[in-house]
Amino acid sequence: MREVVIGGVGMTSFGKFLERNLKSLSEEAVASALKDARASVNDVERIFFGNAAAGVVTGQEMIRAQASLRNTGLDGKPMFNVENACASGSTALNLAWWSVASGQSETALVVGVEKLSHEDKAISFGAFAKAVDLEEPLPEGVTTGTGSLFMDLYAAKARKWMKRTGADASDFARVVVKSRRAGSLNPLAQFRKETTVDEVLSSRMVSDPLTLFMCSSIGDGGAALFICSEDYARKHDIAPVFIRASSIVSAKADGSGELVAVRAAREAYEAAGIGPEDVDVVELHDASAPAELIHYENLGLCAPGDAPKLIRSGDTDIGGRVSVNPSGGLLSRGHPVGATGVAQIVELTQQLRGRAGARQRPGAKVALAENNGGQLAGDSAVALVTILST
């Protein structure tokens, strides 16, 4: 297996852009990544295109990459359409990494893009509701009265987790305050206004204990990565950010065993030859505020039950011992689902390059991304963990 390098990154602003389509978002992200890599479309050998919900929201099925990229100059090249719920973008990266690491190709382009906003919000929420086994009964205590199935699922998990750890709603609010502060420093983030614990707690209740500010929002956006072999990077004078590990696991159908995020993290740590104590900066899947705290434990950033203590300590803030979601995460950067996993890598690459500006975690050398999606047997249906280093 060869070393694989991230040579260029690019992304659009994230937000609700009713006037934009998949083509517009894809074209901007691709052009930005190629410019960053000082590469052209002629340097791209294969394209891996992550998108989750176009079939439901826009009606575009089957040839999403070919349709979205037809005006970029990439037409005619091998394109692979990847759909894997909220982990579509990181799954596209995993496949591209394998392509380059195995020697199948010298370069690859990873694109993650999503158009979720729609004049009819029921269509947008309906797209998320399809990311479950439709024949599986909902978990005990979960209702669909809010219109947002996944927030109901997160709320049920949060209630159980609060009983186990002693966390309270103010801990979830602290996550949002941290997230909004990071988002205010990110010019591409969907939400860029800081908030307070009281404002978070007093925002509209969505699904107890989740208030509106504790829930990731519907949004649109695109992100892209140009990846290449180490030899290619050396020949083209590209300062390398290495992909040290990329693991992917799916849920067990009977709900047995460890959570997918725990398994994916362990596999990635073993492949990279490091532990959680070696990680400087993390982008994780905070689709709801409680999810960030739960993932502190899943990723080994703290001992089981210590996540409330960790968020209260400030150690996961910008510049902290392990900076978590300095981009603003899903809560503030935004969560256009097919783009999310790629956007995480864009942020971490900039962190390892030392180019994150006011969001910079000083001296960052090792970074980790955790991206999960869907729901199966009480767990996320899929999880990926990617580890990067300089």
TrEMBL record:
<feature type="domain" description="Thiolase C-terminal">
    <location>
        <begin position="254"/>
        <end position="382"/>
    </location>
</feature>
<protein>
    <recommendedName>
        <fullName>propanoyl-CoA C-acyltransferase</fullName>
        <ecNumber>2.3.1.176</ecNumber>
    </recommendedName>
</protein>
<dbReference type="Pfam" id="PF22691">
    <property type="entry name" value="Thiolase_C_1"/>
</dbReference>
<keyword id="KW-0808">Transferase</keyword>
<dbReference type="GO" id="GO:0003988">
    <property type="term" value="F:acetyl-CoA C-acyltransferase activity"/>
</dbReference>
<dbReference type="InterPro" id="IPR002155">
    <property type="entry name" value="Thiolase"/>
</dbReference>
<dbReference type="InterPro" id="IPR055140">
    <property type="entry name" value="Thiolase_C_2"/>
</dbReference>
<dbReference type="GO" id="GO:0006869">
    <property type="term" value="P:lipid transport"/>
</dbReference>
<dbReference type="Pfam" id="PF00108">
    <property type="entry name" value="Thiolase_N"/>
</dbReference>
<dbReference type="GO" id="GO:0008289">
    <property type="term" value="F:lipid binding"/>
</dbReference>
<dbReference type="InterPro" id="IPR020613">
    <property type="entry name" value="Thiolase_CS"/>
</dbReference>
<dbReference type="InterPro" id="IPR020616">
    <property type="entry name" value="Thiolase_N"/>
</dbReference>
<keyword id="KW-0445">Lipid transport</keyword>
<keyword id="KW-0813">Transport</keyword>
<feature type="domain" description="Thiolase N-terminal">
    <location>
        <begin position="4"/>
        <end position="231"/>
    </location>
</feature>
<dbReference type="InterPro" id="IPR016039">
    <property type="entry name" value="Thiolase-like"/>
</dbReference>
<keyword id="KW-0446">Lipid-binding</keyword>
